[in-house]
């Protein structure tokens, strides 16, 4: 399974560095942004499989806004919100806007890695389904082409058979001549 590309967005440099290091230790490809504005610039430049963002950050672009920007730019990118200010209402609002998951600070890294594995597995399944869909499309196109070729061949053979029948029924010619004409039609001469 390919390693996920993850964008970590958090205004706290300690948490940002900790997340970056722990995720890198688990062989994820990680970039960091220190606020929503930097996250938006990175999201416009590059695709990420997962955005892991703090919910509450200074400025006009907090975690919910990072979620909205991410989903607008790349609907298949999964967003996981992290907050110290956990509430059911905020979690429900985030899920309605497309968040894949929600974690509370302090971060339980075992839980985080399980969620990343879940996302990686889901992305792998979706990629496999897409690959199967593409293979089916190719197979269907090839089957349609084969059927079309067979129908054309059948039509040509039916035309020849009709010509042979006409040649054999032509009573204006001698029997040997009719048979010779029918053979010529069958052999394509």
UniProtKB/TrEMBL annotation:
GO terms for molecular function: phosphorelay response regulator activity; transcription cis-regulatory region binding. Residues 5-120 form the Response regulatory domain. One of its GO terms (cellular component) is protein-DNA complex. Residues 140-167 form a coiled coil. Pfam families: Response_reg. The modification 4-aspartylphosphate is found at residue 54. PANTHER family: REGULATOR OF RPOS (PTHR48111), TWO-COMPONENT RESPONSE REGULATOR ORR33 (PTHR48111:SF1). Keywords: Coiled coil, DNA-binding, Phosphoprotein, Transcription, Transcription regulation, Two-component regulatory system. The lineage of its organism: Bacteria, Pseudomonadati, Thermodesulfobacteriota, Desulfobulbia, Desulfobulbales. It comes from the Bacteria. This is Response regulator receiver domain-containing protein. One of its GO terms (biological process) is regulation of DNA-templated transcription.
């Amino acid at each position: 399974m390919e390693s996920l590309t993850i964008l970590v967005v958090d205004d706290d440099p300690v948490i940002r560095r900790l997340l970056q290091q722990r995720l890198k230790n688990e062989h994820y490809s990680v970039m960091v942004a220190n606020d929503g504005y930097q996250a938006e610039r990175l999201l416009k430049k590059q695709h990420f499989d997962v955005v892991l963002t703090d919910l509450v950050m200074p400025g006009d672009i907090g975690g919910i806004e990072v979620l909205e920007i991410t989903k607008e730019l790349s609907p298949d990118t999964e967003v996981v919100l992290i907050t110290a200010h956990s509430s059911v209402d905020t979690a429900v609002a985030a899920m309605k806007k497309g968040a894949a998951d929600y974690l509370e600070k302090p971060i339980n890294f075992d839980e985080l890695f399980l969620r990343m594995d879940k996302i990686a597995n889901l992305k792998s399944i979706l990629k496999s389904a897409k690959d199967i869909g593409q293979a089916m499309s190719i197979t269907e196109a090839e089957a349609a082409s084969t059927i079309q070729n067979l129908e054309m061949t059948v039509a040509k053979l039916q035309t020849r058979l009709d010509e042979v029948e006409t040649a054999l029924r032509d009573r204006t010619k001698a029997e040997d001549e009719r048979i010779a004409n029918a053979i010529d039609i069958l052999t394509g001469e």
